[in-house]
Amino acid sequence: LRRVPPEFRVLTGSGGILYPSLLMGACGAVLAVACVAPRACVELYEAALAGEHQKARELQNRIAPLSHTVTAGLGICGLKAAMEMAGYAGGGPRAPFARLGDRDVENIKAVMSESGLFPEIEV
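User: That's the sequence. What structure does it adopt?
Assistant: Structure tokens below.
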């Protein structure tokens, strides 16, 4: 950020580091995890901008494991499965990808439940 012109804007692409990125000068984000937890991502962004650091940290701690498991860990197949669990239209993955196995689906369900962001999901 120190080396770019003032008009250059930096976005983060990782939900696992959204809050620290904003603290270091990123002006926003493009996050796959926001397809699953859009409200939490927006609340984190708004809390960081408003200086509500405790709230932003708490949200970051809820979003990061979800981001790691769903997008970084399982990729597009995990993202689509999580979107379906959250009530969004994720649909099935296209070839050559296949739907996740039961073990991965249960893992996503557990992470979503543990996040506290999806009270309707029970393990």
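The first helix runs from residue 18 to 23.
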